[in-house]
Write a structure and sequence with these properties.
4-stranded mixed beta sheet; alpha+beta; 14 strands; globular
């Protein structure tokens, strides 16, 4: 997560833990309004500013700000006289979350009646400071320096990734690593998903420095796993990883689960498997709904009287005796379920855990039944404002690909391909980027232009490239390649961030994945054993097919396999395959030889 500190930038977008995205709250003399186009129509008619308070259900400081800042009589008075306040749950609004994610939560942004931004501010704002801010905007509503700085970000020019840029990004990646404590960056400590994927990819290619970075960071990251109740805390605000912020958010559960499972497959360390199991149990027993879908997050605090630091220091018996726990956000979003599925499948692959795979398929079936929309895409929640949103379809596309590889069931790949086509038709733009939302709840001012958030660009293109590998459809590769070109712009690169996701995407577009095919009937125990071994094989970038000839040709029949009288496995690259392998050991050896 990226954070910025800028007093001059203030947009108030906030989602209170106890509210839904559409709730109206009388926490000041002016009722908190619903986020839609009418808010700006009213603001123009009444000559008011729009105060958007963007919070999160799980956010400790969001709760504090609501209790203290927005309850202050001076703040309430200024809001009542000059502002239209809106409070929104950022998890329910991916378009707002992606637009203002750099400001963290609570994010405070103030708009003019025409929808233009005046200021944007991150984090808790004490009452006295808020009073000064609100009055200053009334006195001088011209845009602050933070808004103007955003406009100047795109002026620098950078070389192409095929030349000098690759060296620049590689240098940034290694130099941004904290060699003393582990992890990338020095402000907040957490395992960055793209950085870990890239480090693992380099380590599996034999890069010893990347291997050391991977191991040190995974070991440090264990400090953010709840040893009693399982699950991962969001981050540590101390460099030694020992000062956690106790909220448990699905993105971190899923990505940490995938990382520890992949590390176990790669190195076989029991401590990595144990860490992954703590997260699996948390998903299974705490965040899983009665119908198979997964909830969104868990709050840091039990309530105003018991904060997370106190609760999470309790033993299992003490927590049970307390009789209450931090609140769970029981919204069921397609995106968060897609993330959970990918994490659970990675664990099932590495550990051979059949129940984790069963939970994954149950969640996928729930999403298909409850969140699918016409054309192959997915809505976010039960009642979306705007949308559909890119992240939901990308996460479910990734989930379907992982389920196909883990089960060999072609229906999952068919669903993935349909979702990929939906993404291209609904979210692609003329210059190759993918916008967060196909339609928006508000379409004026800054919202007349869609958001194209960096992380989603990388995830979308990586999914589309994987779909090209599995299906052979050239439109997927074309869209992924065009997106790589779009990412090579100052908008994403001029700020000095490492951007390992671009490096990952470049590697995957330019190179074939580790390709393993099992040939044999899906009821054959020998074929099942070979498939289980192929699932365990460690590779961040892998294509796994299971060809049962009774089902017809593979979706991408780019390799011709010989007729066999018994189940066999093949390792392939550039349409060249190994000799048939008839045992797990033979198959792993064949893959290793081909990689070398």
């Amino acid at each position: 997560m990226r954070f910025r500190y800028d007093w001059a930038a203030v947009l108030i977008l906030s989602a209170v833990g106890t509210l839904t995205a559409n709730a109206s709250v009388n926490s000041s003399d002016r009722a908190w309004a619903t986020w839609d186009n009418r808010i700006f129509e009213t603001a123009k008619a009444e000559k008011r500013f729009v105060l958007l308070d963007l919070e999160a259900v799980w956010c400790h400081w969001c709760h504090v700000m609501r209790r203290q800042t927005y309850a202050d009589p001076r703040v309430k008075n200024l809001i009542s006289k000059h502002y239209l306040p809106v409070r929104v749950d950022q998890d329910a609004h991916p378009d707002l979350s992606n637009r203002y994610g750099d400001w963290g939560w609570p994010a405070t942004i103030v708009f003019a009646p025409d929808g233009s931004e005046i200021v944007k501010l991150r984090g808790f704002i004490p009452p006295a400071r808020m009073v000064s801010l609100l009055q200053a905007i009334v006195d001088d509503p011209s845009p602050g320096p933070s808004v103007l700085a955003e406009l100047s970000l795109n002026q620098a020019k950078l070389p192409s990734i095929d030349g000098e840029l690759h060296a620049i990004l590689q240098k940034r990646f290694f130099e941004s690593y904290d060699g003393a404590n582990g992890g990338w960056g020095s402000l907040h400590k957490y395992i960055d998903a793209d950085s870990m994927d890239y480090a693992m990819s380099l380590a599996q290619d034999g890069n010893k420095q990347a291997s050391k970075m991977m191991r040190q960071t995974l070991n440090a990251g264990r400090n953010l796993i709840d040893p009693v109740g399982g699950g991962v805390y969001q981050y540590s605000d101390a460099q030694d990883w020992r000062s956690p912020h106790y909220e448990k958010i699905m993105f971190y559960q899923a990505s940490y689960l995938r990382h520890y499972a992949n590390a176990y497959a790669f190195e076989g360390r029991g401590q990595d498997l144990k860490s992954a199991k703590l997260i699996v149990d948390y998903l299974k027993y705490v965040l899983r709904g009665p119908d198979g879908g997964f909830f969104t997050s868990q709050d840091a605090d039990v309530d105003d009287s018991m904060h997370g630091k106190e609760f999470y220091s309790l033993s299992r018996e003490e927590r049970k005796a307390l009789g209450r726990q931090p609140r769970i956000d029981r919204n069921l979003y397609a995106r968060e379920n897609g993330w959970a599925i990918c994490g659970l499948v990675a664990y099932s692959d590495a550990a051979g855990d059949a129940q984790a795979l069963m939970l994954s398929e149950a969640a996928a079936n729930w999403v298909v039944a409850n969140r699918a929309i016409e054309g192959g895409g997915f809505k976010h929640g039960e009642h979306d404002q705007g949308g559909p949103y890119l992240g939901d379809s990308v996460a479910m596309g990734q989930a379907f690909v992982s389920l196909y590889a883990a089960t060999g069931k072609r229906d999952w790949l068919d669903k993935a391909a349909r979702t990929g086509r939906f993404i291209i038709s609904s979210f692609n733009t003329s210059d190759g980027g993918f916008q967060t939302s196909a339609s928006q709840a508000i379409n004026i001012g800054v919202f007349s232009e869609g958001v194209r958030e960096y992380g989603e660009q990388v995830a979308t293109a990586r999914l589309l490239n994987a779909l090209f590998r599995y299906t052979g459809e050239k439109s997927f590769k074309e869209a992924a390649t065009k997106n790589l070109q779009f990412l090579q712009t100052p908008k994403f690169l001029a700020n000095g961030f490492p951007r390992p996701g671009i490096q990952l995407l470049k590697r995957e577009i330019d190179n074939e994945p580790v390709h393993i095919t099992i040939v044999g009937h899906k009821g054959d125990p020998r074929a099942k054993a070979l498939h289980a071994e192929a699932r365990k094989y460690p590779a961040i970038y892998k294509r796994l097919d299971w060809w049962d000839k009774r089902e017809g040709p593979l979706t991408n029949p780019d390799v011709t396999y010989p007729e066999m009288d018994r189940a066999a496995g093949f390792a392939c690259s550039q349409r060249i395959c190994s000799l048939p392998a008839f045992s797990a050991g033979e198959l792993r050896a064949a893959i290793d030889r081909l990689k070398r």
